[in-house]
Each structure stands twice: as structure tokens, then as C-alpha cells.
Fold this protein.
Amino acid sequence: MSKLLTGLSLSLAVGAFAFGAGAPASAAVLLSEPGVSQFRPSPGSYSYFFDATEEGAGTISFGLVGRGTIDGQGAVCGANLCDDTFTLILNGNDLFQGRFRMGGEGVDLVLFAPNGAAVSATSGALGEGGTASLSLPAIFRQGQNSLTFVYTGIDQGMDDEAWAISNLLVRDNMAVVPEPATWAMMITGFGLAGAALRRRSARLGQLA
């Protein structure tokens, strides 16, 4: 019985430590904008601001919603190229740039992206818009950070080309200090393990 109690106590203590102190906690949400933002023409831009408690790695996830004929790489309007270019700027530096066919002409093309980026795009028929989904690793600075979403291209008006941001979510990847309840579980586990070992030692002494 004492062996079983000792094993359970040690498992509880080690499990509490692994869960609370060793395992990374859920990423902290720094900015959340669910749903779809107001549509804007191309060219156009959106800006957002958020605070980080310290410098470190994180993730920026969001969608692009194209309405009308947002053009991809190589779209032609008459004798001119009329592709639309999307750029995401973090703290004044370009983090991502690409062109997506969302109801227009051309093809999807990522011009540059950070390592580990996940990007996909879907287009409807001509004039029916489309969507793109992006998840980008990033390094945030301590204090205030800025995000600017920019579309550039030939101005064809809101009725022909418009876009919006959907489900913007910015998270950091920092682990947090275990909460008091986790520390209590760890202390209890080690205490039970110690008590079981003392009882076992005492019993072995009586049998000797």
C-alpha cells in the first residue's frame, strides 16, 4: 500500500511541476478583432495598435476579404498591369507582401514572408470576390506595437475593388509563471510523497 501511495504522490508532484512550471502556458492574446472590418477601397489601409509586456516572439493571424475584382499577380487592364499588392507592416517594417486573386484576374503570389508563414487564398468567379487566410510569426517589441495593413494598385473605386480584415488575432508565445493553485498542488504532492516515504521507512525499521 505504501508503495502505491508513494508512486501516486510522486506522480502528482511531478505532474504538477510539469504542468505548471515546465510546460508552456497558453499564448497571451495581445489584440483581438473578431468579425469583418469595414470595407475600404484599393488602394487603402488600416492601422491597429497593441501593447506587449516584453520583447519576444508571437503570431499574427487574420483573413483578407476581397469584394469585386481584387487582382492577383499579372492582371492586365487594357495595356497596363493592374495587379493589387497587399503589404503588412509591423512597427514600420514590412513583414509580409503578396498578391491574391480575389474575384479579379491574375494568380496568387507571395512576394516575401517570414519563415513559418501559412498562407492560403480562394477566389470566386470574376467579380465575386474571395478570401485569403494568413498566419505569420513575428517579433514584438516591449511596449506599444503598430500593425498597418495596406493595399496598393490602380484605384478602380469601391464598387469594383474593396477589401477588409477579418478575425484579426495577435498573440505572444511567452510562458507565464505558475499560478498559486499550481504551486499549492506541487507542494501538496511533494508533501504526500515525503510522508509516504517516512511511513515506509518507519515500518521497515519495526520489522528489522
